[in-house]
């Protein structure tokens, strides 16, 4: 039952992990164009380009970066779905959640090339997360009350998705840069990855 699931450590480890990953990633998706525009235009101005021309070129590159997230998300969903059918899922989830921390670091500075790699990593985390919520719910809690338990796990995801864009915007308005939010995202992703590694083994055929 939902009550029995909520009394397990796995339920809360999963929920907190999904919340942290969504907090880290959703804000980046919403603000990625502004982030890349800020970083790239600053670099171009430093190379002697006018502010207006630099911003215009940076926006074009930012649009490309944003589109890369969508492509990597689709690829990640297919790849992760295949892998979790073949191997124990928590280590795969840990990698999918922790590796994008490198992408967050890249977004704290650098040019277009670094932003492209960062966008791919962000897409990996987002593409993996929803599949993993459904998969882990079935494996750890069974199918008898799957809808209720999945629904509450999705609440963790949704709350993070709602708070994150607001938090990223507040950080930028307060500090004039996204860097504090990105560093916080790095920490959140690493914690989420570690929580995944602490999940117990499940029966291969389901609960």
How would you characterize this protein structure?
With about 210 residues, the chain is mostly helical. Helices cover about 85% and strands about 0% of the residues. The protein has 8 helices and no strands. Helix 2 (about 10-45) packs antiparallel against helix 8 (about 180-195), helix 4 (about 90-100) runs antiparallel to helix 6 and helix 5 (about 100-105) runs antiparallel to helix 6 (about 110-140). The longest helix has about 40 residues, at about 10-45.
Principal-axes geometry comes out as elongated
Alpha-carbon Rg, integer: 18 Å
Which band does the percent of strand residues land in? under 5%
The count of DSSP E runs of length 2 or more, i.e. the number of strands, is: 0
| Main sheet properties | none
- Assembly of the depicted chains: single chain
Low-confidence stretches: none
- Overall pLDDT score: 84
The count of helical stretches stands at 8
Q: What's the helical proportion of residues?
A: over 70%
Helix-strand string: HHHHHHHH
Give the structural class.
Answer: mainly alpha
The end-to-end distance, rounded to whole angstroms, is 13 Å
């Amino acid at each position: 039952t939902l009550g029995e699931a909520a009394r397990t450590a796995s339920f809360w480890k999963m929920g907190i992990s999904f919340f942290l990953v969504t907090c880290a990633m959703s804000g980046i998706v919403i603000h990625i164009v502004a982030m890349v525009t800020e970083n790239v235009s600053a670099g171009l101005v430093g190379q002697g380009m006018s502010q207006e021309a630099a911003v215009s070129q940076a926006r074009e590159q930012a649009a490309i970066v944003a589109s890369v997230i969508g492509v990597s998300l689709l690829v990640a969903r297919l790849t992760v779905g295949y892998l979790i059918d073949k191997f124990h899922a928590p280590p795969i989830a840990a990698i999918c959640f922790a590796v994008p921390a490198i992408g967050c670091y890249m977004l704290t500075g650098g040019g277009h090339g670094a932003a492209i790699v960062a966008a791919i990593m962000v897409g990996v985390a987002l593409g993996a997360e929803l599949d993993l919520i459904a998969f882990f719910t079935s494996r750890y809690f069974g199918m008898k009350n799957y809808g209720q338990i999945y629904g509450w796990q999705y609440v963790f995801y949704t709350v993070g998705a709602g708070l994150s864009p607001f938090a990223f915007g507040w950080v930028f308005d307060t500090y004039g840069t996204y860097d504090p939010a990105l560093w916080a995202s790095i920490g959140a992703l690493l914690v989420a990855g570690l929580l995944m590694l602490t999940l117990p083994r499940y029966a291969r055929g389901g609960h």
